[in-house]
Specification:
The structure is a single chain. Strand 7 and strand 8 form a beta hairpin. It contains 9 helices and 12 strands. It has one domain: P-loop containing nucleotide triphosphate hydrolases (Rossmann fold), CATH 3.40.50.300. It is α/β, with parallel strands linked by helices and 255 residues long. The chain binds adenosine-5'-triphosphate and magnesium ion (MG). The site of adenosine-5'-triphosphate has 11 residues, from strand 2 and helix 1.
Amino acid sequence: MSQKPPLVEMRHISKHFGGIQALTDAELELYPGEVLGVLGHNGAGKSTLIKILAGAEKANEGAIFIDGHEAHIDDPNDARGLGIETIYQELALCGNLNAPANLYMGRELSKWGFLRKRAMKEEAEKALSRLNIRIKSLDVEVEAMSGGQRQAISISRAVHFDTKILIMDEPTAALGMEESRMVMELTVELKKQGIGIIWISHDIHEVYNFTDRITILHGGTNVVTAPTKDFTQDEIVSMIISGRPIEHSNKANSD
Ligand SMILES: Nc1ncnc2c1ncn2[C@@H]1O[C@H](COP(=O)(O)OP(=O)(O)OP(=O)(O)O)[C@@H](O)[C@H]1O
Ligand SMILES: [Mg+2]
């Protein structure tokens, strides 16, 4: 994995909100086809870091490189233009629209001023089937769908538009076990397609089994970045709490 150049490099990122220092000299690297877990307790700076990558916040200091080139991400459109999509926990779907309309929200297909509904539905069917998502009827309003189905539509929306980098901020926090599993299965499909995924979660068990690498933040700075399995779950939890890296024997083996 490490032979490939990184999709994303965030270097020396600092961000304050008035007197609150949310991030100090924070770093993030993401490679194609991996799931990077971003961990830390409440207020550690996880969401702020990914919002800077997504163009929702602006860093006070630092630089972002996408595919090795410095990127200036001033707003979410800049991020999207670089192939970066974000799924926030509070899903950005419209409850009163159906799946195809949500998929194309803000980027509707039209011809001579008319919405191309049939084309959008056909494309939506393709997008969902590409990810093995089964939704009984595409005409159903999203409101009537489960959290997992909505999450699935968000993912397919992200994937449909040539996403290279997918950011998921606590994607499973509000989902049941079955739905969480579906979201994770979808994410595995995305990995296979070479998409790099940033996965923020408080569920240590999920993170441990699902991520390839982790970076732990504490008080807005990186504690450690390593392959997930270099540590035990207990060690990861202890680093999240203490903010101090653990020297571990596995680490010596993997270097
Ligand atoms: N818009 C804002 N205005 C002021 N302070 C903010 C703002 N956004 C974040 N902060 C502060 O920055 C710090 C980092 O917050 P952030 O949301 O990045 O943490 P987090 O790791 O995502 O936490 P959680 O696990 O609770 O989601 C916190 O002290 C938070 O209060
Ligand atoms: Mg957060």
